[in-house]
Amino acid sequence: MSPRAKGAFIKINCAALPRELIESELFGSVKGAYTGAQADREGLFRQAERGTLLLDELSEMPIDTQSKLLRILQEKECRPVGGRSSYKVDCRILASTNRVPVAAIKDGKMREDLYYRISTISIALPPLRERREDIVPLASSFLKRFASQAGRSIAGFSPAAAESLRKHDWPGNVRQLQNEVQRAVLMCEGQTVDVHDLTLGAPAPGEEYSDFTLLEGMERNAIVQLLKETGGNKLETAKRLGIGRQTLYNKIKAYGIEA
């Protein structure tokens, strides 16, 4: 609804770039500013002119870069790396972080003055377990996307599957939900994702996997479930998993799965 709605929307993951590149990416650079700088580079601040710049994972930005960012926000001017002159900055700044800002400041991950400069309007996004009404709509959106990508015709979730999704605590939040739905799309054999297509149930007695990582536990659970569905047919189970029979044997042995 703002006057910037038609402007560019530029985003950068501050955790994904090494220290020596993030400033060039944000502010731009001039030819010869550093090794490999063979031409002038336009920074994201300039690309976002009259639009919006999203700084994702801001607390992962190096502290010295944060100080330069603070100066830019205060002075509304930006100087490219290696440059002698500055250019005016006119863009809206959005910032996000998976850390609690106050804790990030205490841990030395975020400058306190930068936080108070950018926190004019703050929105705390609750974890999925605190907004369960969002779980199934999000899952349905992911299902539609992944089914289209995989060329699958899947109508939705069964009532039991939807209830299982709603009741799960989702310690990995939206990313975990997204991965769970993607896996279900690949493993589902019908036109509806049922509860047995999900990996959310607790292991049965005697099948605990507390010594495994979350990912390994999910894989073990999937193998156990498919072995049950195929009546212990390892060849069919391997086919459904998309792995070789010997690979399945190795995993059964590694996970201590009983016959």
Short descriptors:
single chain; 259 residues; mainly alpha; Rossmann fold; Helicase, Ruva Protein, domain 3; 2 domains; three-stranded parallel beta sheet; two-stranded antiparallel sheet; 11 helices; 7 strands; 44% helix; elongated
Description:
This protein is mostly helical. It folds into two domains: 9-118, Rossmann fold (3-Layer(aba) Sandwich), CATH 3.40.50.300; 129-254, Helicase, Ruva Protein, domain 3 (Orthogonal Bundle), CATH 1.10.8. 44% of the residues lie in helices and 8% in strands. It has eleven helices and seven strands. The strands form three sheets. A three-stranded parallel beta sheet has the order 1-2-5. The protein has a two-stranded antiparallel sheet with strand order 3-4. It has a two-stranded parallel ribbon with strand order 6-7. A hairpin with an 8-residue loop joins strand 3 (77-78) and strand 4. Helix 6 (135-150) crosses helix 8 (173-187) and helix 10 crosses helix 11. The radius of gyration is 24 Å and the shape is elongated. The termini are far apart. Mean pLDDT is 86; it is low at 202-212.
